[in-house]
Amino acid sequence: MSNQVIVVGGGLSGLSAAHKVLERGGNVLVLDKNSFFGGNSTKATPDINGALIKTQIGGPEIFAQDTARSARDLAHPDLINFLLEILPLLLNGFRRNSKMFPGMTITYALMEVIEEIANNQPDRARLIKKERVTKLIKEGDAVIGVEYVKDGQTCKEYGPVILATGGYAADFTEDPLLKKYQPDAKIKFLAAEALRGVGGLLLNGEGKRFCDELGHRDYVTGDIWKTKVPVRLVLNSKASKEIEWHFKHYVGRGLMRKFSGEALAKEIKDPFGKKFFHNIPITITDQFHIALMSPILLYTMDGIDINAESEVRDMQEQVIPGLFTSGEIAGGIHGANRLGGSSLLGCVVYGRVACDSASRYLFQNLFSATANRRLGQIVEQLAPYQTTVSFDPTNQKVHLEISWSIIGTLKR
Ligand SMILES: Cc1cc2nc3c(=O)[nH]c(=O)nc-3n(C[C@H](O)[C@H](O)[C@H](O)COP(=O)(O)OP(=O)(O)OC[C@H]3O[C@@H](n4cnc5c(N)ncnc54)[C@H](O)[C@@H]3O)c2cc1C
After folding, report:
1. Domains along the chain?
2. Measured from the CB, is residue 351 less than 6 Å from ligand 1?
3. 393: part of which helix (H) or strand (E)?
């Protein structure tokens, strides 16, 4: 086994894993099929979740319950538990009205630092871009490396592998899963949930509200499909002010325009059971920011089955040695419906968990290979005797058996 952990994918999850490998003293190779790192992570806009941060109400238990409820009980509780441990200090740096997109900011920071390390210490970190990983190399049941194609040639790299290749919602390659599941998909801009979080309303083609805007995204999307189009997202001036930098981004791209409020619904008592209304009252004399809305394919729900160590499991739920995964490609964390903001959280958390597991696996294997080599040398020195020496990496114990012959009889 080579002395490196291989990370496939240079998005937030892959880079989180790669940095953790370096922190732990290991060497890392990051491969990405694009000419630049970042993946979808640099597009992620206002939301990153975290238990125990200033904006979270109710503590880790409430966050875990929300995640499980949103996942429709399809997530593994032990995988959810890890989401509660993310660095509150880091996340407290981000505010909704801040001029920072957390996905972009964190991912760029990780990119810059790893590029600097790769330049200054090429034996510690290697970055390969514009090369697509096409195959996992196996030895028996274990994954021992990857194959990628460079200038038409197949190249091989060896080491435990962390897959962090993201989802397939924006896969427009030749034979994508996207074509199979949503053949008419087009590229659109995401209207971040934060726009609804600050009090943005959804109005249907008749100017009526048709759902609880704070409901889970699968519920909101389902109701958009059912209602009369066009669906408009409406932010009054208070809501716009709270999320100023973000709405300017949408206005700047021509996705939102300013309107007078004459045609807008003004009911406050909610027929859909919505309990929280921010930045009210909505008055007819106010100015509004309005965008046309339609559902989009944003995220790949669930994926490769992992356990709480980020180890990949096969169809029989057996761990595949040497293979780990994190980020959007990893399944079992968000279940049927991901909470807005929890993907970035999952990327950082499981990137780090995957690194821990891959590093441990690498060190254990390197250690056992070195130990067995040393033991082989000892055996040679004990040649006159019949000697069996073995090293068991699971309990890190050496078994030594010496036997010798007296007039043809074997003694132990
Ligand atoms: C517009 C938008 C806004 C979003 N906003 C939010 C938000 O506010 N909050 C939130 O939590 N989530 C948000 N998400 C979701 C979140 O951004 C993603 O789920 C997350 O960034 C995925 O990170 P990742 O590291 O798993 O994958 P990515 O960041 O997509 O990185 C995967 C990388 O793997 C590379 N790759 C893929 N296949 C191969 C291969 N075979 N060989 C080599 N390299 C390969 C890709 O080139 C890519 O660079 C948003 C998504 C979008 C599209």
Report:
1. 5-183+298-366 (3.50.50.60), 193-293 (3.90.700.10), 382-411 (no CATH)
2. no
3. none
